[in-house]
Design brief:
Layout: H1 15-59, H2 68-81, H3 97-105, H4 110-113, E1 117-123, H5 125-134, E2 147-149, H6 153-163, E3 175-181, E4 190-193, E5 196-199
Antiparallel strand pairs: 1-3, 2-5, 4-5
Helix pairs in contact: 1-2
Length: 206
């Protein structure tokens, strides 16, 4: 919507104060617009991730490459909230039967599965290799104990860039894991803000 700017006062009015008032109004409008766009981006990213949950459940024991549908959803989620200069190097399905068995053992009732989410974790390639082999280690959380997961690709990428060394050859690159998660609030898991979750138990992430 258009912003209403009051008319400029007459030549005898304090024009400096009027200009400062207009500047404050313009800046406030810009802040509100940025906040609205950020909220819309978060909501769309959440929807894209939510749409991945069904295909993941159906294919979670498959060793076949990602389907075109899954790749399309991942591309949509990534580019919805990522900086324009970022790009996807590759997409892979990762299956660790041991970790999947642990996850399925604690999925719980149908009601608990309705509170299941697909979330993101940005990290280095070296850390990603360890995670794929042994699972997440909540003791290594950089923002306090727990594994930190989010819904916005750009935020996860920024976290990885601040805490993980990039590749040594070519442009800096990082790994972004898309994982299923079944939070247990009674065991200390919590949603901090804007879809950012802190999970305390390795077996609740796969």
């Amino acid at each position: 919507p258009a912003m209403m700017i009051p008319p400029c006062p007459g030549p005898n009015a304090r024009e400096k104060e009027w200009l400062e008032y207009v500047d404050r109004r313009v800046e406030a409008e810009r802040r509100d617009t940025r906040a609205r766009l950020k909220q819309q981006t978060h909501q769309r990213s959440k929807q894209f991730l939510g749409s991945l949950l069904g295909p993941w459940r159906a294919n979670r024991r498959s060793v076949a490459p990602l389907t075109l549908e899954e790749c399309g959803m991942l591309h949509a989620m990534f580019y919805e909230s990522m900086a324009p200069e970022a790009s996807i190097i590759s997409l892979e399905r990762l299956v660790n039967p041991h970790l999947l068995n642990q996850f399925e053992a604690q999925e719980g009732t149908a009601e608990e599965r309705r509170r299941q989410y697909m979330l993101l974790h940005g990290t280095s390639w070296a850390a990603a290799e360890s995670i794929c082999q042994s699972g997440f280690d909540p003791a290594l959380g950089h923002l306090g104990h727990g594994t930190w997961l989010g819904q916005v690709a750009e935020a996860c990428h920024s976290y990885a860039a601040k805490t993980a060394p990039p590749t040594t050859e070519g442009p800096p690159s990082y790994c972004m894991l898309v994982v299923a998660c079944t939070p247990n609030l009674a065991d200390g898991d919590e949603e901090r803000s804007f879809g950012v979750w802190r999970i305390q138990e390795t077996a609740r992430i796969c």
